[in-house]
Amino acid sequence: MSDAPNLDAAFAALAQQRVGGMLVQSDPFFTSSRVALVELAARYGIPAIYARHEIADAGGLISYGWRLGNSYWLQGVYAGRILKGEKPAEMPIIQPTKFELIINLGTAKALAIHVPDRLLISADKVIE
Known about the structure:
CATH topology: Rossmann fold
Helix content: 40-55%
Strand order of the largest sheet: 1-2-3-4-5
Structural class: alpha/beta
Number of helices: 7
Order of helices and strands: HEHHEHEHEHHE
Largest sheet: 5 strands, mixed
């Protein structure tokens, strides 16, 4: 899907199929369309977990993923090692090690979803 007008049709199809929830991967289109995603998920009553924290901050139910800023820092570390003479072909792939769980309780309440205390305790951020 590459354009926002198709989002409504996609959500309508998901609702018609009575999906129990969805996982939205990290993608620049989804991040830039976060307000529409959150509004459509609420309108159709579809719980969703997002890979980008910006979407939970905008009203999405849950996000779990790494912060893009941390990836930029890791890229800088990698570039520094190359500039010091290490050969890229001999270096291990650097991957994020810190993942963030953000839970939006307002959205959970609107969707009539009970979030267990155990999950709330493990969250990095809880949005009231």
